[in-house]
Design goal:
Length: about 450
């Protein structure tokens, strides 16, 4: 099985086991090196002591061959080399053999040591050789040796280290897997709950652990996401229901008029029939256009940003719009913003149409530059362009000012339908303002409804 196919538990247990095993091996190796170094130093001291004992006899002129007995605990191969390089005395195991080594201590040192392999030793292998210099009618050299110690000086210690490494690695890997398994139980519960959540039971939520750790934050984020998803789906259901209702009304009217015409075709006035059907067709076209605009805004379709003279844009829209009420314009010149001309034009049209629909006699459109610092909003630090559309109608109650921005919402259904409103103009206007980094709100006014658009000023 490939590593990518292993569970998180298996991967963590594997990585932990490998890491701990590697650390144990490194530690054991360093410990064996320390043991080997210490034991080698002690052995070198013993070999040096043997050479010093022989040097004592040479210095006193009591040299015999073979060398005199050496204490049992100090028995080592020893050779005595005279100033001419000839072996003149040796222990019994090295009789009639050449010198075991050829290095001598460098002045002013009297003792030197080295590891010599494949020399005159009967046991073969490598030996630690200590050379000591003695002066007696010339420089004499005493060589003493002992077999070099293997890396595993103490086999018992090596066995313990190997066994301990294996046991400790397995224990740590098992402990890591067990700990991760316990830690991931809440994740399994979250996954199981998510698997059972469907569109018909979005009210269910995943369990949140008691401990405020990463999994706690994950569960909380999942529940917050489910809250948003439930709100979006509920909004989508409501939107589909409202859209179906709005589309059904003009379709029903067209169907009724066409069926009446089919019942008595000889009595049908084609011009009169077309004039009767045309308002319903225009209503369908308006609904389809608004739905398409909302879809693009919801999808975040990018648009071309350019510097726009908002004063010129508002004046042009008011000039091209069929005004049924008196319009008073108070436009500050050279109010520049950054955005899409067609969308900002749609924003102005929607607000003016809404004001025309509910105004008693007059609509006031005001455009001015403002100081963004007074708004305490980081979006308007460089200044704000404020577009105000005020009508002198009945106004909007304070508790309904956010309701009108919901899709297909009409505070006066009969009046809105008679005047052509479908409840999408204001939601579209707000989304356009927000997509340009601004806001659209309803502010207090002495009479009527006062809509205020704020956009970042382009300096």
């Amino acid at each position: 099985m490939r590593l990518e196919q292993c569970s998180i538990r298996g991967r963590i247990a594997l990585f932990t086991g490998v890491a701990v095993g590697a650390l144990c091996i490194v530690f054991s190796t360093l410990l064996l090196f320390a043991f080997d170094r210490t034991a080698t130093q002690n052995l070198t001291k013993e070999v040096t002591a043997v050479g010093e004992l022989t040097a004592y006899y040479v210095d006193r002129g009591e040299l015999v061959n073979p060398l005199p007995p050496i204490p049992t605990n100090l028995i080592r191969p020893v050779q005595v080399v005279d100033p001419h390089g000839q072996v003149v005395a040796a222990t019994k195991d090295l009789q009639h053999k050449p010198a075991m080594a050829h290095f001598v201590p460098k002045s002013p040192q009297r003792v030197a040591s080295a590891v010599v392999c494949h020399s005159v030793f009967t046991s073969g292998g490598c030996h630690i050789v200590v050379a000591q210099r003695v002066y007696r009618d010339g420089d004499w050299t005493i060589y003493s040796a002992a077999p070099a110690l293997p890396f595993y000086v103490y086999p018992g210690v090596t066995t313990i280290l190997i066994t301990g490494t294996i046991i400790f690695t397995i224990a740590v890997a098992y402990g890591a897997r067990h700990t991760v398994t316990r830690s991931l139980r809440p994740v399994d519960a979250i996954r199981a709950q998510l698997d059972h959540i469907r569109s018909n039971n979005l009210g269910n939520r995943v369990p949140v652990p008691v401990a405020e750790d990463e999994i706690f934050r994950l569960a909380r984020s999942v529940n917050q996401t489910l809250d948003r998803l439930e709100d979006v789906l509920e909004q989508q259901r409501r939107f589909c229901s409202d859209a179906s209702h709005e589309l059904r009304t003009p379709i029903t009217a067209i169907r009724a008029q066409v069926e009446d015409a089919l019942l008595a075709p000889e009595d049908v006035d084609l011009t009169k029939l077309c004039n009767a059907v045309l308002p319903s067709v225009e209503r369908l076209q308006s609904i389809a256009s608004d739905l398409l605009m909302l879809t693009r805004l919801d999808a975040g379709v990018p648009y071309e940003r350019q510097v726009i003279d908002l004063t010129e844009l508002v004046a042009k829209e008011l000039k091209n719009h069929q005004l049924g009420r008196k319009v008073v314009q108070c436009l500050t010149p050279d109010v520049m913003v950054l955005g899409d001309r067609s969308r900002l034009g749609q924003l102005v049209r929607n607000l003016v149409q809404n004001a025309q629909r509910y105004a008693s006699s007059t609509v006031t459109v005001t455009l001015r530059r403002g100081d963004g610092a007074t708004l305490a909003d980081p979006r308007f630090l460089r200044g704000v362009a404020e577009l105000e559309v005020l009508d002198d109608g009945i106004g909007i109650a304070a508790d309904q000012r956010e309701t009108v921005f919901q899709r297909f919402t009409r505070l006066d259904t009969a009046r809105s339908r008679d005047t052509g409103g479908i409840g999408l103009g204001l939601p579209i206007a707000r989304q356009i303002a927000e997509s340009h980094g601004g806001t659209l709100t309803i502010q207090d006014s002495e009479r009527g409804a006062r809509f205020v658009v704020r956009l970042p000023l382009h300096i």
